[in-house]
Amino acid sequence: MAVPTKTVRATVRTEAPEAPSKGLIRQTNEALILLGAEKVFARTGFSGATMAAIAEASGLPKANLHYYFGSKDVLYRAVLARILNDWLQPTLVITAEAEPRTALEQYIRAKMRLSVERPDGSKVFANELLHGAPVVKALLKTELRQLVMDKAAVVQGWIDAGRMAPVDAVHLFFTIWAATQTYADFDVQVCAVLDTDALAEKDHARATEHVVALILRGCGL
Fold first, then answer.
1. Assigned fold of 20-70
2. Would 20-70 and 81-218 be classified into the same CATH topology?
3. Which of 68, 2, 73, 3 is nearest to 32 (CA)?
4. Is the entire prediction scored with pTM above 0.70?
5. Which CATH architecture has domain 81-218?
6. How far is 200 from 191, CA to CA, in rounded Å?
7. Nearest Cα residue to 190 out of 95, 80, 115, 106
8. Contact, 23 vs 17, CB < 8 A?
9. Which end of the chain has fewer CB within 10 Å, C or N?
10. Where exactly are the structural domains of the chain?
């Protein structure tokens, strides 16, 4: 899979703020394009995706994609940045002052919801990693690593204070990611074993309760 090699970077807008109505239209269209792009990149990979297919999935003219994102490379990086940002937001509940059981349960449930609501995004990100993370590697080594180290320090603080059982604080996050994202990345395998064409709401609820209970018990919570 040939992918762009530029890394995902935060951008700062320097032009004057847009009028509220124009800004809302832009936000709406960009959101539609990003969701459409997630679907197409998840199914075809970067190389197989076309701006025409993404436009069709977005329900917008192809010209809009070029207007808002310029190229497929830029759009792909925007999709990855959005996915990672949405995955990291739920970690905000993990603070030194929080109750360990409540914080970890909220985080796990949020990750499970994302696997249900944004399975295509998860697959796009997984595919990027399987190909060596050419676009997001720098971000993984910097921002993601720092966030995990910070949150692992919080977990270690809970352990040191006797508020939860001793576990490897860093690998706890790897375990949570693996347990939650498998329902998006490997849904075909899960469906095959459960003998169903698609996971129903009851299947997701069952999976969520299982993952929450399993991890919390492992943490002595």
1. Arc Repressor Mutant, subunit A (1.10.10)
2. no
3. 68
4. yes
5. Orthogonal Bundle (1.10)
6. 10
7. 115
8. yes
9. N
10. 20-70, 81-218
- The count of other CB atoms within 10 Å of the CB of residue 6 is 13
Q: How far, in Å, CA of 63 to CA of 67, rounded?
A: 6
H helices of 89-142, in order, are 100-117, 119-130, 137-139
Q: Which two tokens stand for residue 67?
A: 């207007």
Query: Contact at 8 Å (CB) between 168 and 143?
Result: no
Pair of tokens at residue 48: 């197989």
Q: How far is CA 35 from CA 135, 136, 169, 202, 203, in A?
A: 19, 19, 33, 25, 24
H/E stretch holding 151: helix 145-160
* Local confidence pLDDT in tens for the 221 residues of the chain: 444 545 444 332 334 445 556 688 888 999 999 999 999 999 998 889 999 999 999 999 999 999 999 999 999 999 998 888 888 899 999 999 999 999 999 999 999 999 999 999 999 999 999 999 988 898 899 989 999 999 999 999 999 999 999 999 999 999 999 999 999 999 999 999 999 999 999 999 999 999 999 999 999 99
